[in-house]
Every structure is written in structure tokens, then in C-alpha cells.
């Protein structure tokens, strides 16, 4: 009986995910506020039923009561964050909030299936960070001086990255963390704020040179630390923000050329890079060594097929670092390739929402922040999934909100809280424009009535 439930559950979970993904894009076309609210409520119900089905299966297969306890705690967290956002921020983007809950749900399901203790630690971190992040949108609205701290952002970022380079121990071939914390995750945010503050008043040649020097220091320290995934994310954010601020294709071409040259240099300088490229080119040839991870990842994805093996039916634990770098492979093995595609589409919906917010914001500082954070998010997703599927060499970054990792999930939650603040600012700007339009219309109507009265007299 349990096997029948497990077999049916994978189709139920897949159907719920497909419908949720459809809602993410369908809401773009909806104009009625009532229709949007109904779709948002349906999304919450889809998340609830998906979580219930998945954790029921995990409990039936493992028999661990800790799974039930974890599920109850997780649902309390989701209910609390949904209620608090609606109470504190009437103008918040509920679709953005729903997408965060969906991605966290997928991560909790897979982490709990792999190790309940790991999933519990992730939930504690997520809960604590979200409580802090609740204050971020109002700070974004009120703290107007953030745009004036340009060189403070740069100094803090370079100092912390330098400390990691000097003091951190090497782990998996790279220097990543100090005392269990990965500073590069937080510096992703300060770096974007630095770039936005520097480029907000214009982007002449002198300003671009300053931005390039500081960005080069960030990326250079990360390369020396062999944190190549973060280096690529920082470089991508720099390139996009400079191009948007200057609208100069020449800077974009120079940046891409410089990035390509830097990649070649890194390949010849670092054995760590050569190993990953070798594993990417022909993982079976180096299966016993550096190719083992990617081969196991591809085996897992291939074994899952379109519909997956079903929760607790696969062997994702055979993939090294599966909870961090290769969680997408575990998802595809047990929940299916179609589920994995839907997950990518939800991430894409996330990114498109951020770009839409950026395009509608009038103030350059906030516009550049939204674009920078959106670029970092999109590239991190691309690097993680691209590496797990052998589309690109592995870079060792996590899938935002899904993979296990305290620093990563904390940074992503704070980034999304900043985006919520920017969304609310955009709503404020729209309201101000509407008030101004009504005021001008009233003034015109008053002048017309006055002119007609004078004519009659």
C-alpha cells in the first residue's frame, strides 16, 4: 500500500508544481485585482497540498516522527511569514512572497528526505533571517542616506574578502568561510549597493574606471581565494550595471573580452580550475577522481527521467555535496525532469519580476540595485543548474533558497526583502504620480469652470 501511495504521490506533486508554475506566468496577463488575489490564494493552496503530500510520503517511507514535527514547524513558519507580510506591508508583492515559500518548500522537502537534522537547521536559519528581514522594506523606504555610503560599501566588501583570503582554511579547493560564515554571500549585497551608489548620478569615463577598479579588487580577491563561482556572479553584476548605467555597447564588449581572457588565465594558473574543466569535458575519463561528482549527478538525473523515481526511492546520497552544490540533481532523480524544468521556470519568474520592478522604478539608485540583485540571483541559478547538468563546468555555488547553506539562504532572503522594499517604493511612486495627475486634472477643471463663468458674466 505504501508503495502505491509513493508511486501516485509523484504524479500529484508534479501536477501541483506544473499548475503553480502556470499561475506564475498567467498572472502577468491578469488585469483584475480580484483575479490576481484569487490566483495568489490558489498558489498558497498548491504549496500546502504539495508539502502535505511530500511529507506524508517521507514519513511513510522513513517512519520517523521527526518528519511530522518538522512539517508542523515548517507550516507554522509559512503561515507566520504570510500573515506578517500582509499585516505590515499592504503594498508588498505577494507573488514574490509565494515564490519564496515555494522554493523554500522544495528545498525543505529534499533536505528532509536526505537528513531531517539538516532540514531543521535550515528551517531555524530561515526563520531567524526572515524575522530580521521583515524590517528591511521599511528601512529601504526610510533610510534615504543609503545612496551616500558609496565607499563604505566598497571598503567593507574588500576588507571582508581580504580577511577570508588571509585567514580562512581551504575547503573543497577554495577559501570560503570564516567561523562557519561565508562573507562573500553578504558582500554580494554591499557590492550591488556600491555600484548603484557610484553610478546613480551618471556614468562618465572616470566613474566607470572607479567602478572597474573596485570590481576588479572584489573579483581578484575571490579568484585568489579560488571562489570562482562568486567571482563570476560579481563580474556579471558589474557588467550589467555598468552597461545599464552607460548604455555603451563598447563597455559591454570590453567586459566580455576581459572576462574571457581572465578565464583563460585562471585555467593556466590554478590546477583547481583545470580539474573542473577536465571533469566537464569528459567526466567518464576521470570518473575515479574529479569526474565522480558530475557523473553521479548525471546518473541521478537520467535515472529520474521525466517523472522521477518518487520520494525516498532514489539514491541521491551517492552524490558528493548533494545538499549544497548538487541538490538540483537530487530533485530531478526523485521528483522528475519535468519538476526540475518547472523549478527553473519559477526561478525565471522570480528574475522577471525583479527586472519588471527595476524597469518601473524612476530613481536610478533603486533601479540599479534591483537590476544588480536580479542579475546575481539569475547567474547563481544558472551556475548551479548548469554545473549539475554538465552544461558548464562546476563552480561550487548553491541553488538560492533550495540548497542547504546558512550564509547563502540568509543572503538570498535579505536580497528578496530589499526587492520587496523596492516594490513598495515603486507602488509609492505610482501613487504619487496618480495624485499629481488628479491634482492637475482638478486644476484644469477649475480653470475651465472659471473661464466659462467669466464668459457667461
From TrEMBL:
It is found in: Membrane. The keyword Membrane applies. Keywords: Cell shape, Membrane, Transmembrane, Transmembrane helix. Residues 435-457 are annotated as: Disordered. The keyword Cell division does not apply. Pfam families: FTSW_RODA_SPOVE (PF01098). It is a multi-pass membrane protein. This is FtsW/RodA/SpoVE family cell cycle protein.
